[in-house]
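Lab notebook, design round three. We kept the backbone fixed and only want residue identities now. Task for the bench partner: fill in a sequence for the structure below.
Input structure tokens:
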């Protein structure tokens, strides 16, 4: 039997490439963009530029949540199928993260941080079934900071004329949510963040992947707590 394997890609704009150094080690599954954000936060803490650090750290964990809504104009006739897959994908992450899951699905076509969009082909990627284009921006001053995330989750609902089944569609969306939460792609199959193998769907994070996201969020939070403690001490 032919096993078609697809890559699910992530594009993050607004961040430079990863560097090493600073802070405690993040899980090896962490996306380079999150490593870079964590490094920039560590560097900022070392220079006592706390608002800069807080912008990167809170942007990494989405302290105010991050919202997604389905663009129904992109998938006429498939709205129910894609909505249901998105709900299952989010439920799989909520199962692992519980109330700490920052991702929220808004009603279809609502104004959200990211739009879930069905496309006919994935831009710039050959064999991909999904691609998240995530733009993060950060701003800070002596008195305040802010961050925002926006973009688009592009997904295919069929490949070479063959429709993805419900589990495959759930995997594609759940995988892109994994990127949104800070995970990198993996090379091996059998993982949510690995290549998708048709008819052998991984419809939620493995225990290891779930633990990695929990650990990333913990590391970011520890640094946020340290900053607040330092600020209290110097107040
Ligand atoms: Zn991917």
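Proposed sequence:
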């Amino acid at each position: 039997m032919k096993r078609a394997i697809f890559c699910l890609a992530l594009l993050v704009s607004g961040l430079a490439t990863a560097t090493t150094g600073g802070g405690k080690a993040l899980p090896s599954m962490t996306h380079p963009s999150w490593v870079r954000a964590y490094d920039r936060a560590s560097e900022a803490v070392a220079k006592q530029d706390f608002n800069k650090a807080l912008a990167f750290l809170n942007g990494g964990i989405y302290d105010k949540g991050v919202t997604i809504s389905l663009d129904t104009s992109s998938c006429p006739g498939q709205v129910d199928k894609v909505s249901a897959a998105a709900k299952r994908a989010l439920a799989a992450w909520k199962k692992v993260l519980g109330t700490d899951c920052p991702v929220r699905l808004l009603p279809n076509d609502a104004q959200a941080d990211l739009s879930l969009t069905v496309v006919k082909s994935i831009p710039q990627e050959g064999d991909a079934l999904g691609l998240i284009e995530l733009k993060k921006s950060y701003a800070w001053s002596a008195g305040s900071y802010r961050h925002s995330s926006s973009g688009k989750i592009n997904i295919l609902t069929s490949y070479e004329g063959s429709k993805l089944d419900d589990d495959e569609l759930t995997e594609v969306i759940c995988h892109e949510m994994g990127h949104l939460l800070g995970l990198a792609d993996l090379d091996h199959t059998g993982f949510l963040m690995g290549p998708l193998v048709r008819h052998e769907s991984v419809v939620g994070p493995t225990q290891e992947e779930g633990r990695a996201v929990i650990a990333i969020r913990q590391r970011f939070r520890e640094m946020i707590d340290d900053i607040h403690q330092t600020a209290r001490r110097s107040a």
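Keep this in mind before ordering anything: Helices lie at 32-46, 50-61, 79-97, 166-180, 207-234.
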